[in-house]
Each structure stands twice: as structure tokens, then as C-alpha cells.
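Backbones bend. To wit:
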Amino acid sequence: MLVAFHTLGCKVNQYETEAIKAAFVSRGDTIVQEDERADVYVINTCTVTNIADRKSRQYIRRMKSRNPEALIVVTGCYAQVEPDEVSLLPEVDLVVGNGNKTLICGLVYDKLSKKEAPVVKDRYVLPRSKLTYYEDMGLVVSSESGMSRAYIKIQEGCDRFCSYCLIPYARGTMRSRPIDEIIEEVQLVAEKGYKEAVLTGINTALYGTEKDFDRAEEGNKGESSALELLLDRLDKQDNDIRIRLSSLEPTVVDVEDVTRIIKHDKLCRHLHLSVQSGSTPILKAMNRRYTASEYLGIIEAIRKYDPLFGVTTDIIVGFPGETEEDFENTLEVVRKAEFGRVHIFRYSPRKGTVAANLTDAVPENIKKMRAERLATVAERTAQDFYKKNFDIPHTVLIEEKIGKYLTGYTENYIKVYIETSEMNRLAELVRVELTQIYKDGCKAIFI
């Protein structure tokens, strides 16, 4: 049987897609590209924005058009939050929520064995109150050859309920994966030749918090968090794989937490810390549990430890009630933080969130203008940060060849372009020096 996948959204979705692929491969099925004709198409959806929902529907229609006789499976956050809406799409045959992704392969086989499979729509979606367990997907290694980076899921769920966000409803309560399982999976991907492991979760900073701690690392509370204990263990592993955290939430960690975390030897000198706004009143309206000055305090502590430590972030512009002064404060945070990259989102209300009921909406033309201004400032400050890295040795993980350039990311998450005729450096860690600004990163030379 031929099976194709399309994954939208976060690194957790990417990890879970790899686990679903592995289940089909174990039955002898063949994984094909999403633009090829397949017997089964699996769309792993995102619902973080209205645009994500629309993209999910577009891919559902597109994949069905490639083979009208194919079975269409929709899973992920859009399927979890809007199962009725997804079920009503005429192309969809099977809707599977986030707590049941390990069942997908078996459900597909069951459905194909029934004569009414193309007609009757099946749905396997648990309510949020039932999403209280960590769904064990086993040890996951990518089925794609040539990949240099592996994603390792360590945590699931969130209970922070930022006022604009649906993800706590889509992913359920916070729960963590036992440390020993994570250690085993990192060792496995290292033995397979991967050079970087990205620890990912819905809210990675919540890994091993109070109720999960005993299960994760019995009897080691002390001053260290479970996340720190995990990084301690990874530092002691006998391999050369480097570790990257997909993100940390300043709603969870503070200066002391971050200061302890960044000192681990194998951890890449980069953190993704979502600021969302540089205005303290807007942060309060978003139910973010820090002030703008507290966020900048974390940045200051990081850069005191290492002036070239890379920080990337997410920012929402046009949140209800955002004034010009609020926006200017956001620009000031960007200038002070010198982010290596800023992911910019224009606010859109999500049904079911607190913010969807807020008045004082920012007009769309103002959102667009602010997003453009923010992009200009973010690019300028990122380039200022890049220049500080010139003529200094960096380690880059080579990921692909684009034209005449090998490309990859430094340990502090600067994208580099190395002009060379070599092809055999893919998935290698190489030493380079950055020489000049180029596209969305820098040109570099081997050293």
C-alpha cells in the first residue's frame, strides 16, 4: 500500500508524523511523497491560526484530487478542536484526534477492510478532559534518508491558557515523558548518524513540573528542574550529538532557570523565547505571566553568559487594544534583544479563546503596517547580531545543497551559505567563519 503524508505546524507534529510513518512501514507499506499518487493520505493539521485551518482544508482537497479513490485521514490540532467541521468535509474519511495518533495505522487497515469504508465517516477524538496521558509512540527515527537533525518529543500539553491560544484545548493537560526513554531515543538517533537532536514539546519548559517529576526522575527534586536533570544526563552520554531546545516559555522560566539551563555543554548556544509583545499591558491581556522588563532581564542574563548566544522569538502584532505606544515598546524590545530571527504573526481571533471576546480590535490595515515595520526593524537588528559573529569560528550542521551553496545553521542558529563544489559534506558538523550578510543569514568559508 502507498501512503503519503503532509504535516503542518510545529515540530511536535513533525515528530508524530514520523511515528505514524513507522507504523505503516512496519506493516510493509511504502511511504511516497505527498505530490505522488497514494492509496492513503494522512494530513497532520495545525490550528494555531485561522490561516492554519484554511491551509489544512486546502491540503485535504489537494491530496484527494491526486487520487479520488484514496482514503483521507485527518489528524492533529484542527481535527481535535473542530472534529464536526472536519467530518463535514466531503473528502475526509477518517478523523483522529491528538490522543489517538498511534491508532491511525490500525484504523486505516480496519476501515479499508470494510465494504462501507468509502461511505461511512469514522471519528476518534477524545475530549480535552481525557487528554491526560502521554501517548507513547515508541522510539522514533526519521524514515527520510540524509536528514541531519532529529526531533525528540519530551513533553505534551499546556495549562498556561494564553488568552489568544487554542493549543491547551487541542493538546490537553501537561504531561511528560520519562527521562530514561528520552535518553534512549537520543542515543539511538546518535548511533544512526544524526548530529543534532531537538528536544521538543508543546511547552518544553513545563517538562517534569511538579506532578510529572516523580515519574520522570524519582527522588531528585532539590534545586534542579527535571529539564535540567535531563540535560545533565544528556551531557554525560558518550556521543557527539549536539542538543537543541525547540523553545522555552518565559511564562514558565525565569532568569535563574535559564542561567542554569544554558550552561550545559552539549546544548546549542541558542534558545527560542517567545516574547509575543514588548508591552507589559498587552502581555497582561494576553495572560503572559511576565513583564517586558522581566523578559529583557532573561536576555541580559543570557548575553552576560555569552554575548553571541542566539535568541529567536515570536511576536503578535495587532492584539486587541494595542496602541501605537504598545507597538513602539515592542520595537524597543526587538532592538535591545537583537534577536537572530523574529516570527511575526498578525493577530486573528480564535473561537473559544478569551481574546476572541475582546473589543477594541486593531484595524487590519494597521496590523499590516505594523507587521511591515516590525519586519524591517527585526531584519536590521538581526544583521547587527550577525555582524558580531564575523571572523569567529562557528560549528555548522550542513543540511542541504542549494545551488552552489551548502547551507545549515550555526550552533547559535544563524543560517549560513558556503560556496563550494563539494557534495559529500551533507549531515556533517563543519567549522566555518562568517564573512558577510547574505539573504536570510550569512556567507561563510570553511576553516
